[in-house]
Design goal:
520 residues, alpha+beta, FAD/NAD(P)-binding domain, D-Amino Acid Oxidase, Chain A, domain 2, Helicase, Ruva Protein, domain 3, 3 domains, ten-stranded mixed β-sheet, eight-stranded mixed β-sheet, globular
Length: 520
């Protein structure tokens, strides 16, 4: 998967019409691209920045039905999400794994209340369930999570959900779409919509690297831009009503010593109505999240002080070792593209269902939803888009379509396990050039070979692409990612045939971004 090859398509032999043009390279857009391409439609996906740059690389790293949505009474969403969770585990076993969670009980009513609720959760999962939930004694709970606050602890309820690496799944989805015949291009910003009369017939786009502008014709255009959905709607109709209420979720990353267990902690109700998670991930612990309304979406949201303090305060309530600011290895913020119903005052109460609307011009918009249901969102929006465009009706193929890298029964302790079948080719790079097997930093698990692979085969174009999304260095340890950035920039410059000025600019831009992940 190489960007230059895709750009050359526009320079040398561009199709007169694409069947489907998708704006947005997050979970929703990528899912739609995989679906459309696998049906045999000529598919083009354009992303203004990098794949999963926004919301889709900043999740809690869970593939779950949503215990909280069950509590809200949204049973249909829970059933759909649990079904999709099962399919995703089957289709991407190299990236999605089973994760045990414990709901600690500190009040007498919590054991029976959450115990019954999670039995319903098991029942709704049906044959795609990951294991039965059960009540645990105080001793059993502390045996599984020794650092759980013992004072007042009565016991717990254990249940099972899924865990994954979000941006790695995103890049594998881009590769899957390409494997199926799609063209997916990052750093290609859609700047306008082409119309014939009042109907949309394509898009205007600008290559953010070269500055070159293109007019691209398509039979249908899909707006899958997440928190930027309203911007594209206004390209079509300047007076379009706003439908997105962005909500910011923040997570902190701590050392494994705060939760030296393979079992995660889930607190169903915090002060703001959110669920609080403490989840082991890549030998670290992710703690979050918050739910803060945001007026204006941005590509690089920054955690607010009150959000950081909120997480630290609540983590201290449930862990014996209280985390302080100096313990935080990284803090990251993401924006949720919540579809705003009239009269909703609290973003924590807004449904996570997805939403599809067709404008009078033929623009098909899909938004809302969550990572777990990305495949179903893709299926639904391509069904709708095919009708709008008058494309030949073709059945969805993604329910059992293996995602790029598919490899079953992997050893998660292997450093390259999350690459699946691609790990063989990365190892060959090291075999050919042993110095590529060296770590980027003593406090990070990544090697120089992964940088070379990301540039050559995963369309990584910037330092941030490599250190934030192809690897997760920025999230695992922001300071360490800054320290290894000069070496990574040299490796990338060689692969991309860039000079010193490019390296200098990349280092300055990455330093500016990384500072937002550090707590002073």
């Amino acid at each position: 998967m190489q960007r230059e090859q895709f750009i050359n398509i526009f320079k040398k032999d561009p199709p007169k019409f694409w069947d489907v043009i998708i704006i947005g390279g997050g979970a929703t857009g990528l899912g739609a691209a995989v679906d459309a391409a696998s049906r045999g439609y000529k598919t083009l996906l354009l992303e203004q920045h990098d794949f999963s740059k926004g919301t889709s690389s900043r999740s809690t790293k869970l593939v779950h039905g949503g215990v909280r949505y069950l509590q809200q009474g949204n049973v249909s969403l829970v059933i759909e999400a649990l079904h999709e969770r099962g399919l995703l585990i089957q289709n991407a076993p190299h990236l999605v794994s089973h994760q045990a969670f414990i709901v600690p009980n500190y009040d007498w009513w919590e054991g029976p209340f959450y115990g019954v609720g999670l039995k319903v959760y098991d029942l709704l999962a049906g044959k795609l369930g990951l294991g039965p939930s059960k009540n645990l004694s105080r001793e059993e709970t502390l045996e599984k999570i020794p650092t759980l606050e013992p004072k007042g602890l009565r016991g717990g309820v254990i249940y099972y959900d899924g865990q994954f690496d979000d941006s790695r799944l995103a890049i594998n989805l881009a590769q899957t779409a390409v494997d199926q015949g799609a063209v997916a291009i990052n750093y290609m910003r859609v700047t306008g919509l082409l119309k014939s009369g009042n109907m949309i017939i394509g898009v205007k786009a600008r290559d953010e690297e070269s500055g070159k502008e293109y007019k691209i014709n398509g039979r249908v255009v899909i707006n899958a831009t997440g928190v930027f959905t309203d911007e594209v709607l206004r390209m079509d109709n300047p007076s379009a009503a706003k439908i997105i209420s962005p909500s910011q979720g923040v997570h902190i990353v701590l050392d494994k010593e705060f939760l030296p267990s393979d079992t995660a902690v889930m607190v169903p109700q915090t002060d703001d109505g959110r669920v609080l998670f403490a989840v082991p991930w890549h030998n670290r612990v992710i703690v979050g999240t918050t739910d803060t309304p945001v007026e204006t979406p941005s590509l690089e949201p920054v955690a607010l002080e009150e959000e950081i303090e909120f997480i630290l305060k609540h983590a201290a309530q449930y862990l014996t070792k209280d985390p302080h600011r100096e313990d935080v290895l990284s803090v990251f913020a993401g924006l949720r593209p919540l579809v705003s119903p009239e009269g909703a005052e609290n973003t924590a109460d807004i449904s996570r269902d997805h939403y599809i609307v067709v404008s009078a011009s033929g623009l098909v918009t899909v938004t809302g939803g969550k990572w777990t249901t990305y495949r179903k969102m893709g299926e639904d929006v391509i069904d709708q888009a095919a009708m709008v465009a008058g494309l030949n009706s073709k059945a969805c193929r993604t329910k059992d379509l293996r995602i790029h890298g598919w490899l079953k029964d992997i050893d998660e302790s292997e450093p390259l396990s999350y690459y699946g079948t691609d790990s063989i080719f990365i190892q060959r790079l090291v075999d050919k050039k042993p110095e590529l097997g060296e770590k980027l930093h003593p406090d990070l698990p990544y090697t120089r070979a992964e940088v070379v692979w990301a540039v050559r085969n995963e369309m990584a174009r910037t330092l941030e692409d490599v250190l934030s999304r192809r690897t997760r260095a920025l999230l695992l340890n922001a300071r360490a990612s800054l320290e290894c950035a000069p070496d990574v920039s040299k490796l990338m410059a060689k692969e991309l045939r860039r000079g010193y000025s490019w390296r200098k600019k990349q280092l300055a831009e990455f330093e500016k971004i990384a500072k937002g992940y550090l707590l002073s």
